[in-house]
Give the backbone structure.
Amino acid sequence: MKKIITFLAIAGLFTLQSCTTSGSFEIDPLPVATSEVFEVNASFNSTNNYSRLVTLNPRIYSSDVVLVYRLTGITPQGSDIWKLLPETHYFADGTLDFGFDYDYTTTDVSIFMIGNNLQTVSTDYRLNQVLRIVITPAGFSTAIDKNNINAVMSALNVDKSQIKKIDL
């Protein structure tokens, strides 16, 4: 029995030993995921079916997470107020009036309005909406308050000068 185990161990060593050549062997590194922030000014109306498609280049890795924020106002001190999508607005009786939502693929982000009668939504909510698309790499901390765009940008080490404007 000892001879069989010894034989199998030696055979295993030869089998698992890799072949080498006179050249060096290198593994191509994986692309380094970086954080990116894009800003888009979009209007939502019946002509565009209350949606905007934002094509991104370079593509989004399948492990990335995309966050979309909408500029909803300015504080008395002059700071921007951003809301993380999805964002919903309700009638007084608790039924859905309208909202904003999004989905994404590896090449684009689709931002759209939802609701029963979007034509009746105030133009303050439909026209000239400023949106920020934040691409976070895999492994982005779950401890960050994603509702706070400033905390997200700080954690990603992205400042306002690095925001890329996209014209639709």
In short: Confidence is low (pLDDT under 50) at residues 12-32. The helical segments are 2-16, 123-126, 149-155. The longest strand covers residues 65-74. The CA atoms of residues 1 and 7 lie 10 Å apart.
